[in-house]
Structure formats: C-alpha cells, structure tokens
Amino acid sequence: MKIFLCGYMGSGKSAVAKRLAEKLMLPLIDIDDQIALIENKSVPELFKSKGELYFRKRENQVLQDVLEDPVSLLISLGGGTPCYANNLEMILSGKDSILIYLKASVEFLTKRLSSEKATRPLISHLESEEDLEDFIRKHLFERSYYYNQAKLKINIEGRDVDSIVDEIIENLK
Predict the structure, then answer these.
(1) Which of 26, 51, 131, 161 matches a 20 to 30 Å C-alpha distance to 124?
(2) d(CA 96, CA 8)
(3) Distance of alpha carbon 15 from alpha carbon 85, whole angstroms
(4) Are 132 and 123 a contacting pair, CB within 8 Å?
(5) pTM flag (> 0.90)
C-alpha cells in the first residue's frame, strides 16, 4: 500500500506524515526531502539555481520511482506535486494507492505561512500579508481541483497532529 498526503504548503504534511508513519510502522518518503538529497541542495536553493520547471521535472521522476517501489510506503507530497505533469494520474492509478488531502482555509494558511516566507521559495518574494493571502487564495483555487480528487479529505484547522493522524487511521480501516 502507498499512502500519499497532499495539501497546500503549511498544511502540516511533514508533521502528520512523520507521526502517521510511526503509528502505521511504514517507511516515510518526503518528496521534497528526497529531491534535496538527490540534488544535494535545499529546495529553495534548487528553485533559485535551476528554477521551478527543473524542480517539477525532478519531482515527477522521484514520484515515478516511489510508485515503482514494491514496498508499502507513506509519501508526503510537495504542495504542488499533484498539480504538475501526470503526477495526479500516476498517484490515483497506482495499485493500492490512497491520496489524502490535508485541508485548510486561506486565512489559516496565511497566518501559518506569514512567518515562514523566507524558507518557502514560492512565497519568499511577497512583502505584505495581503499579498500573501491573495497568492494563497489564487493558488488554492487553482489546486483545489487536484486536491479534491483525494479519497480522504481531512480538515486540519485547530487540531493537533495526533487527532489528525487518528482520524486518518480510522478512515483507512
């Protein structure tokens, strides 16, 4: 089985994935971390030196490798992973694959991401909180088609990691 977590940046994919992997005793692959490891550069450095298009191509290659791996895995996707190339199609057509969407509102994501702009290449150029909110609103609208194809949608607002993980596990039964 392959369990994929998707959601917008700041939705808690990495934290939820770590705890869920522990509880389900599954190996965890964070797509962004995997790319950084292969490239020997952080994601922000990679965006700066080679651009988003290069990153998205690399992301697609890593996803293909993950899907071909015969081992059961928990995979934390990057926020844009399901939205590029044929990534969503590959995930949804994967044997024994399940896609889970960690859902949050524009307001929640804006508040969470406002202090993290420097480490997030897609939003590092935004100067005001209003610009950030507009950016997230536009992106979330564009990505909602992809995210909403997930089999399971979990609202993460106002919840701790353990309650989110427990809900996911309950719905996997």
Answers:
(1) 161
(2) 24
(3) 26
(4) yes
(5) yes
Q: Is the dihedral of CA 38, 35, 17, 15 positive or negative?
A: positive
DSSP annotation string for 8-27: STTS-HHHHHHHHHHHHT--
Partnered with residue 153 across adjacent β-strands are 101
State how far the Cα of 98 lies from the Cα of 91, in Å rounded to an integer: 8
CA dist., res. 34 & res. 80, Å (int): 15
Please give the angle made by the CA atoms of 97, 98 and 99, to the nearest 5 degrees.
125
Strand partners, 155: 103
Q: Which residues pair with 102 in a beta bridge?
A: 154
Amino acid at the residue 11: S
Residues 6+ apart with CB under 8 A from 23: 165, 169
DSSP state of 28: E
Q: How many CB atoms lie within 10 A of CB 164?
A: 21
Residue 152 — φ and ψ, nearest 5°? -125, 130
Which pLDDT tens digit goes with each residue over 17-73? Answer: 999 999 999 999 999 999 999 999 998 899 889 998 999 999 999 999 999 999 999
Instruction: Identify the CA nearest to 90 among candidates 60, 69, 54.
Output: 60
